[in-house]
C-alpha cells in the first residue's frame, strides 16, 4: 500500500543546512556544519550520544535558525518520545483520524499494519503501553497531510514484529523522511542516505549504514596505502641523499643535502 503525500515538491532539496554553528550551554555542538536533506529520500541522522542529533531536529522543527532553510512546500510531521501529538483522553482511532483527509478505512488499514487489533483502536491513549503509544503517534503522522516525517528514535519500546511492520510502512511512504535511531538494522532497511554528526560537522553519505561503513573502510585502506607509498618514496630519497653525501666534496652542496636529509627525516617520522 502506498501512502501518498499531499504535495509534490519539485526541488530536489527539502532542507538545506549551511554553516550551522550551535551550542548547548557551554558545549559546542556544530561549527560551520553543512548538509542537505534530499526530497523524497529517507535519511538517517546518526552519531554518538550527546553530539546534537535531537538538538538539530529541534532547530529544524522551530524553523528560526537562518542557517537552516526549509523548502516552502515542506510540511513536517514530527514524532517525539513525549507523544505531544496525542490526546491521552481520546482513543487511538479518534487521535489518528483527527487531522487527516484519509478515509477511516485507510486509517484502520494503517493501524492494522502496525498490529493494532480492532478492539484496541478504541482504547484511550492513556491506557496503552509505551510501544502502542509509539505506533499510534506514528500512525497519526503517517496519514496526516504532511509530506515529510521527522522521527526521533521511533523503534524505542517496539518489539521485533512491530519494528518490521513499521519498516514496511516507511518503505512504502513516498514523502521525505529524516529519522534518528541507534538500530543499525533499521537504518540499513530504511535509509537511502546517512548524515553522521562527528567532530562538530555533518558528514553526508548516499546509501545505508552498511555502505557507509564499507566506504569508511575503503577510505581508510586508501589512506594506509598512500601513507605506505609515502614512506617508500621517502626512504628512496633518503637513500639517494645519503649516497650523494658520502661522495660529494662540495661543502655548499653537502650543506644543502644535509638540510634536505633532515627535512625528509622529519617527514618520515610523521608517517610512523
What is the fold's blueprint, element by element?
Layout lengths: L12 E12 L2 E12 L3 E5 L6 H10 L5 E3 L5 E4 L12 H6 L6 H10 L16 H13 L5 E5 L7 H13 L3 E5 L3 H7 L2 E6 L2 E6 L2 H39 L3 H20 L2
Parallel strand pairs: 3-7, 3-8, 5-6, 6-7
Antiparallel strand pairs: 1-2, 1-4, 8-9
Helix pairs in contact: 7-8
By DSSP, the count of extended strands is: 9
Discrete helix count: 8
From the alpha-carbon coordinates, what is the Rg to the nearest angstrom?
27 Å
The count of domains is 2
Question: Which descriptor suits the 3D outline?
Answer: elongated
What string, H for helix and E for strand, traces the elements in order? EEEHEEHHHEHEHEEHH
Structural category is: alpha/beta
Low-confidence stretches: none
CATH superfamily (homologous) name of the largest domain:
P-loop containing nucleotide triphosphate hydrolases
Instruction: Report the oligomer.
Output: single chain
Per CATH, the architecture of the largest domain is 3-Layer(aba) Sandwich
Compact description:
This protein is of the alpha/beta class and 272 residues long. The protein contains 8 helices and 9 strands. It has 2 domains: 13-207, P-loop containing nucleotide triphosphate hydrolases (Rossmann fold), CATH 3.40.50; 215-270.
Description:
The chain is an alpha/beta fold and 272 residues long. The protein folds into 2 domains: 13-207, Rossmann fold, CATH 3.40.50.300; 215-270. Helices cover 43% and strands 21% of the residues. It is built from 8 helices and 9 strands. A 6-stranded mixed β-sheet has the order 5-6-7-3-8-9, with helices on both faces. A hairpin with a 2-residue loop joins strand 1 and strand 2 (27-38). Helix 7 runs antiparallel to helix 8 (251-270).
